[in-house]
């Protein structure tokens, strides 16, 4: 029997990113941007990583260590983050109204809190507008790193492992 070839972290990242992008577009076109349903994307990432890490381990006949599995998951996460950043840059450039609605929601939330003056709100919004891309890209990197680490830990923990060490040898070779 021919050994199974494991999916690369790039293919796994493409598949998970594709699901996330489709999910984001559905959320946008249904008008659910400010809904709790947005948090499901983190579940998609964690579940996707756990599935692909398990498939990777199985393709390697489970002759992998926790570190190998975690590394595979985190490399997948890095690729997902790159693709999602590219998608959101294109998305915000194609649909600038989304960015403006986000600014309006942020302003409304600041006004509802009531602990800031109008000048402070205007200053905060000006800073937010100037730093929008830094905040967006930095936020994606940070959040995906945390969620990806959690998904990678989970996937590495639940995948069966039979690691081989350089000091181990077959019982058959002893006889």
Please tell me about this protein's structure:
This protein is an all-alpha fold and 175 residues long. The chain has a domain at 9-95 and 141-163. Helix content is 76%, strand content 0%. The protein contains 7 helices and no strands.
Number of continuous helical runs: 7
Rg is 22 Å
Shape: elongated
Question: How many E-type strands?
Answer: 0
- What is the string of helix and strand elements? HHHHHHH
Averaged pLDDT: 84
Amino- and carboxy-terminal Cα gap? 26 Å
Multimeric state: single chain
Regions with pLDDT < 50 over 5+ consecutive residues?
171-175
Helix content: over 70%
Question: In terms of topology, how is this protein built?
Answer:
Blueprint: H1 9-30, H2 40-59, H3 66-94, H4 96-113, H5 118-130, H6 132-158, H7 171-174
Helix pairs in contact: 1-2, 1-3, 2-3, 2-6, 3-4, 3-6, 4-5
Record keyword descriptors for this entry:
mainly alpha, 76% helix, disordered C terminus
In short:
With 175 residues, this protein is mostly helical.
